[in-house]
Amino acid sequence: MSTINITQFVRKNILELQPYISFRDVNEFNNPVLMDANESPFGEFNRYPDSTHKKIRTQISELKNISSEKIAVGNGSDELIDLIIKIFCEPKKDSVLMMNPSFAMYGFYASINENSVLKLQLDENFEIQKEDFLNITKENHPKIFFLCSPNNPTGNAIEDIEFYIKNFNGIVVVDEAYIEFSDKKSAIELLEKYPNLIVLQTFSKAWGMAGARVGIAYASEEIIRLIYTVKAPYNVNSLSLNLASESLKNINEFKNNLQDILSERVWLNEEFKNIQCIKKVFPTDANFFLIEFKDAENVFFKLLENEILTSKRFPQIPNCIRINVGKREENKQLINVLKTI
Ligand SMILES: Cc1ncc(COP(=O)(O)O)c(C=O)c1O
Q: Where is the signal peptide (predicted)?
């Protein structure tokens, strides 16, 4: 266990903040008459949601074998990224570090909070160069390092994640939005060893619930308490909490869908081998491929003409398009159009 003291990284005003506590959510009642929250007595969704997310945290805790005190639930992991920046980064003063290319939202929320964004250029295999990491952290002392693994938009899982956690004097956020699609281990198992680690996961990808907006943070009890202090009291609505809770009871459906996506990924990868306009398919640990085309712009617009929407990554990643795995019918449509180019 590292002896790193987390309080030193937290903004002073946040340490002084008193969390909003909903009395009914932190006490047990048998059959209460609810007259405390100015709600209507009518309607199916007349009550505020549980601000402490008790039920779903218990379910996740059982599934992942981790204390529910080490779990926070957010309005998508997007909200959690925003909250983490607000907890640790002093506006106009602190900076965050992210990989380049990586998920743009780290920079987006940092900029809203007026924090500068340092970019760690990945090498040709989209790996981090450890020397570059050590140099950039030594020179600039960023407060948070957002390490996305498997990385969006490159698709690969980052090697030796522990090295970056161990060698970073600040908070490391390992964003595992795509971890279920990878055979690499989750960084959750490093939480006991590193109090400066936060792991993010989401219901938006493998769980198929992007519309519900439910994200999860795993961290020390101290960090989780801070997240519960700064979040909006009712940040996740009852419908979404119920949906996520129901899906956690139906692990078989989750597993079947995941298996389907993984076998479609294999199918697509085979099909790509016969497509003339493709130059390179990068290895992926996620539910999408980053593909280099001979003429990506032409491919992108040809697909668009056929109402097949993909994610244009050029010019940042030259001639590359990110395409996610769909159902077999959708994948066939993609392949059929690609064959004509
Ligand atoms: C790496 C990564 N993190 C987080 C998110 C956002 O997830 P959520 O839908 O839980 O906000 C995405 C969405 O694309 C992502 O790619």
A: none
